[in-house]
Amino acid sequence: MKKKENFQLISTNRRAKFDYEISQTYTAGIVLLGPEIKSIRLKHVNINSAFAKVENGEVFIYGMQIPTYKFNTMRSIDEFRKRKLLLNRNEIKRIKNYIDKKGYSLIPLELFLKNGWAKLKIAIAKGRKKFDKKEYLKEKDIERQTRQEGY
Q: 120 exposed, middle or buried (CB, 10 Å; 0-12, 13-18, 19+)?
């Protein structure tokens, strides 16, 4: 028998596709503490100002805010602490090679729960300049107009 796959979207980084040109995406697990996963399940998380780095062959995410769980009995946990991302060794090598190039960075796109496990979709992206953002908005506007006309 096939097991039904549960998928629940928790948070998205809506500015990412506007501010960055996305090259590749990866799905990574996150190392969390007990109260943090409870906060995530309640959708108390912010990934808009987060970014990731490769350090010593491991990937860490910085700036992801997970507020403390209301009924927490553990010691106090820093909301913005760095958290380890779980990726394959080959994926980490590919990411490191891309990020070493000038202008590329590793940003989170969305956080979701898959079969009860917290997963983070991260992307290798290159920052857009101001004129690139204007072009992107023009393209989106043209697409929207053509969809409305029914073409």
A: buried
Distance of CA 101 to the CA centre of its chain: 20
Q: Is 2 domain-assigned?
A: no
Cβ atoms 16, 125 nearer than 8 A:
yes
Q: Are 114 and 57 in contact (CB under 8 A)?
A: no
Long-range pairs, 30-34, Cβ under 8 A, ≥24: 30/61, 30/83, 30/84, 30/85, 30/86, 30/118, 30/119, 30/120, 31/83, 31/84, 31/85, 31/86, 32/66, 32/83, 32/118, 33/74, 33/77, 34/74
User: How many domains are contained in the chain?
Assistant: 1
Domain span holding position 96: 7-149
Asked whether residue 14 is domain-assigned, the answer is yes
Residue carrying the six token digits 């496990």: 117
CATH number, residue 18:
2.40.280.10
pLDDT in tens, 23-72: 999 999 999 988 888 889 999 999 998 999 999 999 999 999 988 888 87
Distance in angstroms (rounded) separating the CA atoms of residues 17 and 125: 9
